[in-house]
Write a structure and sequence with these properties.
Blueprint lengths: L4 E4 L5 E5 L8 H6 L4 H7 L4 H4 L5 E5 L35 H29 L2 E9 L18 E4 L8 H12 L10 E3 L7 H10 L3 E9 L12 H13 L1 H5 L11
Parallel strand pairs: 2-3, 2-4, 4-7, 5-6
Antiparallel strand pairs: 1-3, 5-7
């Protein structure tokens, strides 16, 4: 099975990750899948790779979450039953044990690469910020029916697993993210409303939370039609510009301490 994992290094303490952008599936998995391309796309996070294309370190995953979900614990990383994946009927026949093992090898490889990168950045800057970029549906009932805005912010920041020491940086990051106008208004940015952060955030904080924090940034899919996949490029560019504007703050939060040899 192909790796389909790209790591781009850059002289910055910031990492941007798009772990649910991927749509690719191995031929073996695709042959067993009952889901159409469209059904998979609805639950994936298209265009988040584009949003991570910033002057920072980057991790981009091309593999669909329907093959290996990197934002769940290892024992739940494979969707085998409908209840694992929003009630969807997933497989003609379950993936074989060998296929499942291969999918978990990819899972393990991702976390190995993430650990390597975090250690390197901590060695160079003394700390890090991980921007864990996602998007979420707000029209599950139909293409014209939007979920209530009071429970679905334009930008949901998941920070539940970060240590208390990162609260001041969190407040500054939220303020910076909400400052630019997008589509003629300041975005509604709130914390831990829709999502609190997934397994990636939990894992990073468990192993490296003393040195840095994770901002799991969930963009509501108002920048696209989640039923057709059609994107509003101006809206998407506005979101990327808002992310870019936060980088001076995040970069200045850590200073070079030494050159890592990891």
């Amino acid at each position: 099975m192909e790796s389909r994992l790209s790591v781009f290094q850059y002289p910055s303490p910031v990492i941007a990750a798009a772990i649910h952008d991927g749509h690719w599936m191995d031929d073996e998995f695709r042959a067993l899948s009952l889901l159409s391309e469209h059904q998979r796309m609805q639950e994936e996070d298209p265009y988040t790779d584009f949003l991570t294309d910033l002057p920072v370190n980057r991790i981009v995953v091309e593999v669909s979450r329907f093959q290996t979900d990197l934002n769940r614990p290892r024992e739940k990383a494979l969707y085998l039953k409908p209840e694992d994946a929003w009630g969807l009927q997933l497989w003609k026949n379950l993936p074989t044990e060998e296929m499942q093992k291969k999918a978990l090898v990819f899972y393990d490889g991702f976390y190995e690469q993430m650990g390597f990168l975090l250690k390197k950045i901590i060695g160079e800057y003394g700390g890090f910020v991980l921007l864990d970029i996602h998007s979420y549906n707000h029209r599950r009932q139909g293409p014209e029916v939007s979920a209530p805005e009071q429970d679905n912010p334009e930008i949901n920041l998941g920070t539940a697993y970060n240590r208390e020491k990162w609260r001041p940086l969190t407040a500054l990051f939220m303020a910076s993210l909400a400052e630019p106008e997008i589509q003629g208004k300041h975005p509604d940015v709130r914390e831990n409303i829709k999502f609190k952060g997934g397994w990636l955030s939990q894992w990073v904080n468990a192993h490296y939370g003393h040195a840095g924090c994770v901002f799991s940034v969930e963009f509501k899919k108002t920048f696209m039609d989640e039923w057709t996949g059609r994107v509003d490029i101006d809206h998407l560019l506005g979101l990327k510009k808002a992310l870019t504007a936060t980088l001076p703050l995040l970069n200045s939060s850590f200073k070079v301490t030494k050159i890592s040899t990891i």
